[in-house]
Structures are given as C-alpha cells and as structure tokens.
Design brief:
Layout lengths: L1 H10 L20 E7 L2 H18 L7 E4 L3 H13 L4 E3 L10 H14 L4 H9 L7 H14 L3 H9 L9 H13 L8 H8 L8 H10 L6 H13 L10 E4 L9 E6 L16 H19 L2 E10 L1 E3 H7 L3 E4 L2 E4 L3 H4 L9 E2 H10 L3
Parallel strand pairs: 1-6, 1-10, 2-4, 2-5, 3-4, 5-6
Antiparallel strand pairs: 7-9, 8-9
Helix pairs in contact: 1-12, 2-3, 2-15, 4-5, 4-11, 7-8, 10-11
C-alpha cells in the first residue's frame, strides 16, 4: 500500500521530474497507513506520544525504529516533551539537545560567534539578553529606537555608551552586559586551536561539555574563531544520524533522507507547512517550492518499513496560524486549518482520515 500511495503522489506531479520507478523490496511486508486528525496542536502531540507508547508496548516496535518527521522545530519540541512525560527516550535532531535549556552553553556559543562575526546582530541580541527573564526587552527597545533615529548600528551605539561618548537613559543593563563582552573578548580573540577551545568552552564548565567535545573533534593547531564557529554550526544544524538507533528520532523530512524505521509519523500535514510556499514569490518560484515540498513529502512517506501515520490538525489559535503563515479560515476565536494537498494526492488506496482518539481506542483498546 505504501508503494502505491507513493506512486500516486509522484504521478500527481510532472512525471518527467521523477522518472525512476518504485519497486517493493522482496522482503517487504504490506505497509499500514493511517491518516489521523486532531482538534489542536497539543492534542496532536499528546496523541502521537500515546500512539508510540502503544506500538512499543503492544506490538513490539522498538524505540530506535520510530521516526517522527516534523517540519518545524516548535512542533518537534512539543512532541518531544510529550514523549518525555511517558518516559519514552527520544532525540530531537533540530538541536540535538546541545542548547536546550542550557543558557550557559548558549552564552559561550554566542561569545564565539561575536568573536568570529563581530557584526552579527542576532548573536549580539542573544548575548545582551541572556541571564535575564525577559531578555532585557525594555532597555533593548530603547536601544533599537535610538538606533533608528541616529542611524547607528547596535554595536556602534553600545560602543559609544560604553566609552562614555553617549548616554541613553534606561540602557545601563545593556551597557553592563556589553562591557562583559568587551572584557572577555581580548583573552580569546587571537587564540587558535586548543587554546581557542579552552577559552570558549573551558573543561571546568560542564554545561559546555558537548560543545567542547565537538570542537576537539574538528580543530587543528591553526583553527581560528571564524572557522571553528562555521564548522560547529554545520555540525549542530546537520548532525550525523546513525542508521541504527536506540531512541525515538525527531527530525525534519529533509534530514530523514537515507533512513528507515518500522514506524514513521509525519505530524501537522497542513497547508502552509507541507508544502511550505512563499506567496510573495513569482508563480514559477511557487511551483518550484511546491515540487520541492512534494519531493520532501515523498522522502518522508517512503522511510517506513511497516507503519506510516500521517497526522493533521483541524484547529489552531488564530495568532499562531498568522505567525506561522498557515492557510486558515477564522471561526470565532479559532482558525480552521486545511489538510495538506499532498494527502489528497495519495490516491484511492490511502485510507480516509479518522479522529486520532478514535484510532487509539479502536486499535489498542478494542479488545479490552
């Protein structure tokens, strides 16, 4: 069945783009497909976690044979937390847990970034905000307004304030934090190799252990800050994912290429996420994005060896849909979402959608 729906998905597009025919492997089993719907993102995350637990406990699926392919980091994070509640071990490959809840690691990485790229505004904003509950939002708002009026960059404005050439009421917390950066940079900026790693990620700071280990794997004697930062970014954003795994793996469709699992779940199959299309682009560019989205979805549904679950959400907070640029219609205080067009392209052999809660009840508790 899975091979058939994959063929249907491809045939709905330009066949010249996908000339390669699909053939079932000789040892493959009949694939199972479920198309599920949930009333909201939280219900979806809770339901997916329950489904994984049920398959593991009642049907012998091991944790390492579960792939969850989410197209946004926040969706991945919500599902990860629900799996944690059920004591199911998982790895979120969106950040591989290097920075998750680890403010000190974030701070030291921002320091390396600002040494390597002194004009990086995102890194500067991160550095200025760290260590404060609201990220020093009020003084930063004043700094931003000042920069808009004066034409100075945040760096230029802070340099003037730190040196006493300018004074902006209410910005002292930012100046103090920026002074910490000024005081720290000289001891690291000219370092290379092992000395650079020791300066950025000292052995005595346990929170930086993973960053330190990664750095030690890639440095040479002459590795400078810019090269170390660039290579670390690549390692963190594109981690190597083993073929054999012992935990549930959560990642994007793109990262799943080349992997397989007994149970594959694709959450939030809704228009605006799958496919993700920028409506400000030209029609030709939007068509290219549609085809790329179809290719990624094809990658996702063909990762499974046994069970494929395609999940979608019916309702969402209006503000959330706007921020995520998801297609919707407003109904009262909620946004009604539209399932991904790719689900309709899977052909007649694909099962009709059913409520996620109903699936759990029928599949795992029917006999009880």
């Amino acid at each position: 069945m899975i091979v058939q729906v994959a063929k249907e998905l491809i045939s709905a597009n330009n066949p010249k783009r996908y000339p390669k025919k699909l053939h079932e492997m000789s040892d493959s089993v009949d694939g199972e497909i479920q198309v599920l719907q949930w009333n909201g993102p939280r219900k979806e995350a809770e339901g997916i976690a329950k489904i994984v637990k049920c398959y593991v406990e009642t049907e012998g699926i091991t944790l390492g044979e579960v792939l969850i392919l989410a197209q946004r980091g926040d969706i991945a994070d919500t599902i990860f937390k629900e799996l944690e509640k059920l004591n199911l071990e998982a790895i979120d490959y969106y950040n591989e847990e290097i920075f998750k809840g680890n403010m000190l690691a974030q701070e030291r990485f921002s320091l390396l970034n600002l040494i390597a790229n002194p004009e990086d505004r995102v890194a500067l904003r991160s550095w200025l905000g760290q260590g404060n509950v609201d990220w020093r939002a009020n003084p930063y708002s004043k700094l931003r307004n000042y920069c808009e009026e004066s034409g100075d960059s945040p760096f230029e404005a802070l340099e003037k304030m730190a040196s006493g050439r300018s004074n902006l009421v209410g910005c002292q917390p930012l100046i103090d934090r920026y002074q910490e950066l000024i005081d720290t940079k000289p001891s690291i900026i000219d370092k290379t190799g092992l000395e650079l790693v020791e300066g950025c990620f000292p052995e005595e700071i346990d929170a930086c252990r993973k960053l330190r280990e990664l750095s030690l794997e890639i440095i040479r004697e002459d590795t400078a800050p810019k090269e170390l930062f660039k290579t670390l970014m690549e390692k963190i954003s594109q981690p190597e994912i083993p073929q054999k795994r012992s935990e549930i793996s959560i990642m994007s469709l793109h990262k799943a290429k080349g992997l397989e699992a007994d149970l594959v779940i694709v959450p939030s199959c809704i228009e605006g996420l799958i496919p993700l299309i920028d409506e400000t682009k030209t029609p030709n560019e939007q068509q290219d994005e549609l085809e790329e989205g179809r290719r990624l979805f094809y990658v996702g549904i063909t990762r499974t060896k046994k069970i494929l679950i395609l999940s979608s959400v019916l309702w969402m907070n209006v503000g959330m849909t706007k921020s995520m640029k998801i297609k919707h219609t407003v109904s009262g205080k909620l946004a009604r979402l539209q399932s991904s067009t790719f689900l309709r392209d899977l052909g007649p052999s694909c099962p009709k959608p059913m409520k996620g809660e109903e699936f759990i009840k029928r599949r795992f508790y029917h006999a009880k």
